[in-house]
Amino acid sequence: KRIKTMETRDLRKSAASGGCGECQTSCQSACKTSCGVANQKCENSN
Amino acid sequence: MIHQYKLNGYNIVIDTCSGSVHSVDDVAYDMIAMYESHTAEEIEAEILRRYGGRPDVNAAEVRECLDDIARLKAEGKLFSEDLQADMEGMAYEFKRSRQNIVKALCLHVAHTCNLNCEYCFASQGKYHGERAIMTAEVGRRAIDFLVENSGTRRNLEVDFFGGEPLMNWEVCKEIVAYARSIEKEKNKNFRFTLTTNGMLIDDDVIDFANREMHNVVLSLDGRKEIHDRLRRDYAGRGSYDVIVPKFQKLVAARGGRDYYMRGTFTHNNTDFTNDIFHMADLGFTELSMEPVVCAPDDPSALTEEDLPVLFEQYEILAKDMLRRKREGKPITFYHYMLDLKNGPCIYKRITGCGSGTEYMAVTPWGELYPCHQFVGDEKYSLGNIWDGVTHPEVQEPFKSCNAYARPECRDCWARLYCSGGCAANAYHATGSIGGVYDYGCRLFKKRIECAVMMQVAEEEEGL
User: Fold this and answer.
1) Is the pLDDT at B296 greater than 60, yes or no?
2) CB contact under 8 A, B217 and A26
């Protein structure tokens, strides 16, 4: 009733992915000065 | 651990280690705050004391909410803990296991520039050295170096950077052509980006960039008087009137492919949302506005007194972006672009940006540096594109850079969003890549709070 939980990727369970490394390097994506890892997408999020 | 905050009418709880986000009412907000340090009886008594006058708050309601909190904790969505006791070791081992993998290069194709921007970290494009231009031969070797050192990685990134890369445009095109000629045989997918001040954009640049560049980053600081104050040519003339029509033409022809307008705000325009809105008024929708990083005694440097103003600006921006989305005219702000469902995995989040390991900068003469912001500082030279990393002792500290490397980060709620932050910013602010750029941290945390709030608002409003 009082708590709405957003649908999110479970970071702890994401360890099972092994980290494929195919995602974009964060500093290349827009600003070149302040790292934006959180602003990236996973290319294998299944 | 959790982080709780109130913003724009929402009560938000972020569970750091799982990435869970909860939107809660006032009663649950207070109960969650007390949950780990009080007994159920104490929480019930205190909540009834605070809210007992409300018709929807009674002992049964409070106990039901306590059960909900307990269930979320059991499911690992509240008060969750780190995956391992030694997360720093996990990050280090993950990086070590991939120590020779390089997947991204920043190619400094031109250490020269046709603008003379006062705040330029690259010292007007020359990086404290002499004017230099990359040859096609060096560029092709850089591509080979990347392929040879990329292991099984398929997606490889190359950014054309400077200085001003369009001052060496024909070489950029030759490098792209070479990479395209080998990518099928090598089973690679090159993603090129171009970072430009726009002065030399013409139809050829537009056609080629829109065909070959995965992303283009276009430097514009916003309002004409703000942009022209610092971004001038060597005759002292502002560049706004030259570049804006070129940017508009390039973006209009881009057909929806990625681009970012990339501005810098300084002490002179702490009301930077007005610059973002100005860019939106010009028809640009993909926007990035970054705080200047410079010496504290620089007139452009942001000050402690600026912080409350900047925090308010980030809130104004978030609320205005929600308004624009409701009205069907959305804009994107890079740092508010969170994908809670398909964001990076834990490995990416704990290992950070990859500078000095999987990401390196290449000078016009083929020297390797940990990233573009270290170029010109010779003690950070890693080696070169012919011999690879010949100074492993320089690379080693970058392998140790991660979200848990700094004691200050281990208890920070935002550590899995910032991933330890920018090594270059830390170095320039503290003299060590292992330092903490505290000012940047505070801005970052505010941006994440705003970005998460926007996600909650969009979900609740069905935007």
Assistant:
1) yes
2) no
